[in-house]
Amino acid sequence: MSAQFYNNPSNCVDEAIAALVRLNPHIRQLGTLPCVLRTNLDPGKVALISGGGSGHEPAHCGFVARGMLSGAVAGRVFASPSANIILSLIDAVTGPAGCLVIVKNYTGDRLTFGIAVEKARARGLNVELIVAGDDVTLLGKDNTSGARGLCGTLFLHKILGAAAEEGKSLDELMSVAREMVNGRIRTAGVAAGPCVPPGREPSFTLPPGVIEFGVGIHGEAGAVRSNTLQCSDVVFKLLEYLQSSDNEKCKRIDGQDTCDRKAIIVNNLGGTSQLEMGVVVGEVLKAVKHLPEFKWLSWGTFMTSLGMHGVSMSTLDLTGKPEWEQWLNEKTDCENWRGFVDLEVPVPDPVTHAGCGEEKWVVERHNPTIDMILGCVWRDLRAACEDLDELDRAVGDGDCGSTVDHFLSQLPTALDTSSLDRLLGHLATIVESHMGGSSGALYTIGLTAGARALEAGSGYSASNLTVAMAAGVEAISRYGGAVEGDCTMLDVLYPLLRTLQVHQSEETSALATMCIQAVETGVLKTKSLKPRAGRAAYICTVETEGLSDPGGVLAATWVRSICRQVYGSTL
């Protein structure tokens, strides 16, 4: 079972609600019940409540605020709250104007909320119930349960909440709600991994490299599995679900199947990184450029399935409903609600200035021999990238090879190989722009210092290489803060430098052999050194014991390749 941040899984809902109330002065808890309600309820306005099982945070308690819900009730994780608890919340929030209960379409919720509503009516309270079923991925399945209620339910929370705040009657709100849930709201989701309920095993398993379309929010299986796709293809598939009009249940109650105004919510199902969400939203923005009916977009973490690695998209058909658009964009006090972006507002042009972008390098001329040698070095580096990543996953952040691979992918067709100083300078500008992380910065410093140490037009001699190496290694140590013995690339570069300084006048083949021996000895030495610099310094020594430093292995790779190509070493 995966490690989780709970004290006792059976108490996690109560603990989370207590923290939520403590940190939000605009809400309070209903006694000791798992319910929250607004502190400033107006009995002259219709109250809105929602809820269901926990595990979907911030839904539903996180949307109790002016302009959205008046109250919410939380059951155990993925379990409907009891009818008596729901009834207590209805009693607490319902005034003369009445109460509208918003329920997602799940059997348990329909039953318990339905019982509570009937009991409330028996007490003389003016209460209505609306059931939201917005999932469009399973509509072709043979079932009588109807579409599942997913993130599209939040359109009801926001629009009805704003309308209630405006003073609309319960009958008016029900009229809007009925029209919204009859084909106007659609949701489709996809996951690359399951959710893990508190104290339990993952809800389902996916083979490596597989994603699942049509996932719900309770860990249930989806509709279709697929090999991992590019993000653009995933977004296309979700939009295809949302735009489909093949199924009768997708059509609006008025029989119309076309619309000219839509809003879309891009929702994090709980475990998707913000970086991934940025890419997903970027692809949605690209796609809707070709779908002019999309006028509004919001994105964030709204309705989750614990920590499921996935996203969902929900759309609302706003055609002919300008008041819905107004309510959708009314301000609310809810901290968990991110407003909508108007997609019709032009994007500002990027800010530019004279020094913006990569330094321009004018290639003077080429040295065909050096060009050929470098081509072989790039080949050897690319072949080593996967192994470098694997090694770096054990002692660092797992991207040593990936950063090199990205640098190699950005190399221009021709480098300035006219002289050693110009080659080092040209490489420094490319590395700075396209080789990320500490390695990129350190190599930029070393290459720049090496180029500056040489006279203009310096040739490719052992003595010039020694001068450049000495300046580069010293700069890497000075700016990077590491010294020899700290288990870094310097434990490979310093032995190389000493070999060049002592033996630079040796016959080239012999010098090449000694250089290769020096770096390989340095790599071997890093296996016994305790990391005192770089990311590996923060990792338990036991985990890094006996492993070579990835930066040192990278340095040895290019040194070995150069020596073999330039000096003809047979090692």
Brief rundown of the structure:
This protein has 571 residues and is α/β, with parallel strands linked by helices. 43% of the residues lie in helices and 13% in strands.
Strand content: 5-15%
Main β sheet profile? 7 strands, mixed
Looking at the structure, what is the overall shape? elongated
Please identify the structural class as seen in this structure.
alpha/beta
- If helices are DSSP runs of H or I spanning 4 or more residues, what is the number of helices? 17
Specify Rg, calculated over alpha carbons.
31 Å
Extract low-pLDDT stretches: none
What fraction, in percent, of the residue positions are helical?
40-55%
- Tell me the number of strands: 13
Distance, first to last CA? 49 Å
Mean pLDDT: 90
Strand order of the largest sheet: 9-8-7-12-10-11-13
Order of helices and strands: HEEEEHEHEHHEEEHEHEEHEHHHHHHHHH
Q: Describe it for me?
A:
There is one protein chain. By secondary structure, the chain is an alpha/beta fold. Helices cover about 45% and strands about 15% of the residues. The protein has 17 helices and 13 strands. The strands form two sheets. A seven-stranded mixed β-sheet has the order 9-8-7-12-10-11-13, covered by helices on one side. Strands 1-2-4-3-5-6 form a six-stranded mixed β-sheet, with helices on both faces. β5, α3 and β6 form a beta-alpha-beta unit. α6 crosses α7.
Keywords:
single chain, 571 residues, alpha/beta, 7-stranded mixed sheet, 6-stranded mixed sheet, 43% helix
